[in-house]
Structure formats: structure tokens, C-alpha cells
Amino acid sequence: MDTMRDRFAPVVSRLLDEDPRVAVVLAEIGVDGFSEAARRHPDRVVNVGIREQLLVGAAAGLALTGLRPVVHTFASFLVERPFEQVKLDLGHQDAGAVLVSAAASFDWPAGGYTHMAPGDVALLDTLDGWTVHVPGHPDEAETLLRHAVAAGDDKVYVRLSLQSNSLALPVDGERFRTVREGRSGVVVAVGPTLDAVLAATEGLDVTVLYATTVRPFDGAALRRATETAGTDVVLVEPYLAGTSTAAANDALSDVPHRVLGLGVGRRELRRYGQLEEHVAAHGLDARSLRERVGSFLGAGAAAVA
After folding, report:
1. For 122-151, what is each residue's pLDDT tens digit?
2. 208 φ/ψ angles, rounded to the nearest 5 degrees
3. Closest Cα to residue 46, out of 9, 34, 21, 158?
4. Which residue of 71, 101, 229, 231 has the fewest CB atoms within a 10 Å radius of its CB?
């Protein structure tokens, strides 16, 4: 199966052909994928070199001229390194862009901590007005990329990952999807965590919601799920643990509830290892999730026949 990032350049190249507002801004990473598109649209495919602050600043400038810039590099260089430009050039100037990241939290362990960005979504949460898509499959990534580009002049972040679920589900760029229904708790699986969550909760009496658009947070879907499944909620996110606990608490603020946020821990893992080893080390593999979810939800979620 191809990866989410394999879909990125072909999809956006087609959007360049279809929509004269679309522009692409790169910082060396991913340039080869746009070589043909650059020949067709030399004025709308821009490579600024290894200058990530300029990457975002140039995108903001293009947006202010009426274009719809799609900006791409690794997450750590797209959100963290040029955060001041994301905050001011885009946010303060109310300029829209589509930021599309690669490498997710730790997709390339050999790149070391400089190429890891588990805090990207939490960092964007400090700013107003961002839509955040976290696809769990290449087909979903293609759909959400098109949603993002078509979203007027909004500020949108699309988080691509090498991690992927085995099957794509229909996504609409807005709502959580109910994948399984139960009566003893709600587990929200974000993006590529769904397969592990489904394996971890197999036979448990819990509702599983699937989230590929996490900002705005679909509090209405969570609230509806708790009406039949109870108000114990587990969030499983492929980035910094607890990133969405405040959003879940807000959705349930008028009812007694408990929320457990699972995700990437704050402790830096200083051995390269493999992607799967990082997943397990952060307790996001199916075995670890079953222990953690089961312990939190207790006997009420015990396996059902």
C-alpha cells in the first residue's frame, strides 16, 4: 500500500491544474514530487530552500495576494521551528494556508529528536481558528487534502503519517464516526490509532469513535455517545498525550465524567529504534492499550459474549 505522503504530490499537482488559486511552497523537502507541476506552473510552485521561517512567510504573502498556498515539510520544521511566523504571518494577519506535514510524531526515528514533533497539534492549539485533520489512511488523506484546499481561506493543518490503518473509512472533514457501540465507556481513536484501538477493545463493552478531524473538536458526537455508553472517556491520540482532554472536558462540562488522555509521552526516547518500537514504548500498541483502557474503565467494560 502506498503512504499518505505518496498521495500528497499527485493530489496537489492535480489541484494546481484544476484551480488557478492553488500554489505550493516547499523548503527542499518533497521538491522532486513537484518537478512536472513546476514545469506546468512555474509561478505557483515555489522552493525557498532550507529556510522554514521564509517558507511560512512566503506562504502568507501569497495568501494575501489571493492565492491558496499549500505548504509542506516535516512537522518539526513546519509547526515548531517557524512557529512565530505561523502565529504572526498567518494568524495575526488572518491569512489562510494549508500546512501539510510529514514524519508525524516519530515516523523517522533515525532522524533523531530534531525530526520528531509530538507536540505539533498541542502547539497549534494555542492559536485561534485552525482546522486540524489527522487522516488514518492514504485514501482519507486524499479526501482531507481536497477538503483543506477547498476550505476558502481558512487556516488548515493536515498531519500525514507513515502509520496507517488497514482500511479507509468515509470521512467528511468535520465529524467523528461511530465505529463500534457499547455501554461502558467511550474510546476516541484519532487517525492511525484506530486499528490498535479496535484490536485493544475487541470484546469490550465500549463505544469507539473515529476522529480524523480533531479541530474543531466534535464535542456533539462525544456527548451523544456518552448518553448510551456512559461518561468515562478515553482519548487515544498519535501525538502528545492529553492534547484533547480539555476539549473533551468542555464537551461534558455539565455532567460528571472522567477523561483519560493517551498518546505520546513527554519523556524523550534517546534510542533510534524502529517506528513500531516507539509506538510500543509510548504504550500505543494494542496490548498496552488494552491494559490501560481496561484498567481505567474497570469491570463495567469487561469482555462481552
Report:
1. 999 999 999 999 999 999 999 999 999 998
2. -115, 120
3. 34
4. 231
159 - beta bridge partners? Answer: 101
Calculate the alpha carbon distances from 211 to 78, 108, 110, 222, 277 in Å. 23, 24, 29, 10, 24
| C-alpha closest to that of 261 among 209, 191, 189 | 189
CB-CB neighbours of 87 under 10 Å? 15
Is 159 in contact with 192 (CB distance < 8 Å)?
A: no
Write down all domains in the chain, each with its CATH number in brackets.
4-159 (3.40.50.970), 177-298 (3.40.50.920)
How many angstroms separate the CA atoms of 284 and 192, rounded? 11
Segments in the chain below pLDDT 50: 305
In the chain, the amino acid numbered 269 is L
Check if the beta carbon of residue 224 is closer than 8 Å to that of residue 180: no
DSSP label at residue 104:
T
Per the CB < 8 A criterion, the answer to whether 194 and 289 are in contact is no
CA separation for the pair 257, 261 (Å, rounded): 13
Let me know the angle formed at the C-alpha of 171 by 167 and 173, rounded to the nearest 5 degrees. Answer: 145
Separation CA 74–CA 100 (nearest Å) = 8
Q: The cell 487522516 sits on which residue? A: 135
- The β-bridge partners of 152 are none
Which secondary-structure segment (H or E) carries 228? helix 219-229
